[in-house]
Amino acid sequence: MSKLRIAQYGCGKMSRYSMRYVYEKGAEIVAAFDVNPAVMGQDIGSIMGCENKGVIVQDASQACKVLAELKPDACLVTTMSLLRDLKEPLMACARSGVNAITICEEAIYPINSSPALTREIDELAKKTGCTICGTGYQDVFWGNLITTLAGAMHTIRKIRGRSSYNVEDYGIALAKAHGAGLDLEAFEKDIASADNIPESERKALIEKGEFLPSYMWNVNGWLAARLGLTVTSQTQKCVPMTHSTELKSDTLGMTIPAGRATGMSAVVTTETQEGITIESECIGKVYAPGEVDRNDWTLMGEPDTQVVITKPSTVELTCATLVNRIPDLINAAPGYVTTDQMPVNSYRVKPLDYYVKK
């Protein structure tokens, strides 16, 4: 099989790694899209920091047309964190019959937060014979790592996870979604108040596609599905993170005053019919000097089991997971297929096309 042909949708911070990894895994970029006028017209080599590749970043409004013409093997979508913000690129891929994989955090398991849109994408992708899915850091470090450890345990009562990351590494959309830069009153109004509602109201928002899930909301759904658990209830609580002195944010283009939100902590608690509780927390904020990423999980049962990863290179790990997942995306059945239904992530030592089923 010839080398895989890949499109890149979103040419910001993450694409610097995802596009380089595509080339270094024996595939090639054949098209690139963005909504930022400052990026349009650039050769992707200038974004990657290497020689020109002969691929010019085009206006994202042309994506559907170009994808239909080029028919790449897959499209990498590295833009926003909510599925509703990705409706246009994902539907463009589905309409064009092009497989799409995204690092959008909600996309890892969107059926429990945006079911109507997930079904809409799923139905169109099935009609055109392509696959759509979400992956990224959470696929491994909040998902398959945890379920692999669970496979070594006799009983499990509770799974507790805690992960932190620097919003400076991911772009302005993610930073704003975490409330970074807001005063505490605005944080309460724009972020936290969404969770101070009755369960019936939350369900209504989910059905209407207006719910704002924290990243762990979808991860808990993924974990429950992978482990074969039946969810009976799920809640989330978002609280602001602050710092005692001002912090400069290059991503936001501002200095965050002391006492303002630098980001947030979101705790999601899931109860299951099988009696296993999943409690996971993600902390996304503008880091103060000396703070580093962490990923800590404890599985309580027989025997208690803990994994602690200090200073994971979250950006690079996210993009490497994205690229390593491309063969699984292509090999999957048409529709919206979450990665809990795919094989465990694998390291690709050979060119990506080697792993595609002939």
Automatic annotation (TrEMBL):
<dbReference type="InterPro" id="IPR036291">
    <property type="entry name" value="NAD(P)-bd_dom_sf"/>
</dbReference>
<protein>
    <submittedName>
        <fullName>4-hydroxy-tetrahydrodipicolinate reductase</fullName>
        <ecNumber>1.17.1.8</ecNumber>
    </submittedName>
</protein>
<dbReference type="GO" id="GO:0008839">
    <property type="term" value="F:4-hydroxy-tetrahydrodipicolinate reductase"/>
</dbReference>
<keyword id="KW-0560">Oxidoreductase</keyword>
